[in-house]
Predict the structure of Adenosylmethionine-8-amino-7-oxononanoate aminotransferase.
Amino acid sequence: MNLSEKDQLYNWHPYTQHKTTGLLPAIVKGEGALLWEDSGKEYIDAIASWWVNPFGHSNKVIADAIYQQLTTLEHVLFGGFTHNRAVELSEKLLAILPSNQKKIFYSDNGSTAVEVALKGALQYYYNKGEKRTKVIAFEDAFHGDTFGAMAASGITFYTEAFQGSMLEVVRIPVPTAGNEERSLNALRELTATEEYAAFIFEPLVQGAAGMVMYPAEVLDQMIAICRKHQVFAIADEVMTGFGKTGKTFASDYLVNKPDMMCLSKALTGGTIPMAITTFTQEVFDGFYNEDVNKALFHGHTFTANPTCCAAAIASIGLLETPEMQHNIVRINTKHLAFEAQIKQHPKVQTTRVLGVIFALEIKTEGQESYYGGMRNKLYNFFIENGVILRPVGNIVYIIPPYIMTDEQLDRVYSVIERAVEMV
């Protein structure tokens, strides 16, 4: 029995209907932008393994930082203690985050980062004795798979089995071209009721919805509306953070900064799970009280794990190098050139680029489902041709590691062109 067969016998994979899924490729090695199957087949990882790995697989800088930390202090509980790596990482983050962010709360993954933000917003008003129990989110949003994050998400097949078991979230249109006023008016109407604690959003790019993009200018207006009515603005930067949009954070495009930010994925360079929720001083002060019951009673066993912190410190150091900043610009330039070429194709509906993110929408007869026939056909074609891409319905996107070479990018573009011709 080979590795893939054993995997099928033992393991339950995410977002997978095993009844209709065959054997999965068994990856045994990674280096740079490449992964290798146990058979020796090579793949280009064109989505940075779910957007987490901007500096390449088996990155020596991060690996060395992890090793050094493991031989010094692998873990210590963060409830009642602190350590040098958490303090150092928080200092580094606060130096690059929007200046209104003042407090760092550690957790385990993107979903829990969102949970912490939502609980922070709701309990802030509970602590004040005000009844604000609802949340505003965008249609087609995705914020994670834990219950609060699910409630804030708008992709129904992820959440429909749990309707009636989640907090109350009202969704408004995404302010894409032509929808700006509808979205703004909906937000004005809801915030004026003073029933809402927070507005959560993926800034500028909705990832799981198919890299749907909208302008910073309208998001600035939305945050201003929230501020007027004391509704906290939560930027879910789990996907967009750490360079994906061309700036360190998507929120760096904004004049009006969010009150809270959720970070994960590329935080540790794709090595160890870790997440962070950041807060303004105002939010923190809403919990700062002699009454212990007004504390934020949320925690995880591996909160601020020193080894994770060491990986994140090394990852931020890599992001800040001139070489990595040049790579982000280089990939954006390559994407724009490919977009100019492919958008003329008669089978291409739309294209969009922001930073290292590229997406194209293939024309279809009707509504293409998230895991429908076209998506599966495209996915299988990419895997057969040695490129890891995960289409969202009829939308193909690239979010490559920043160290991907021009030659590797050209190969990815070529395979996408062939795929468009195939469908």
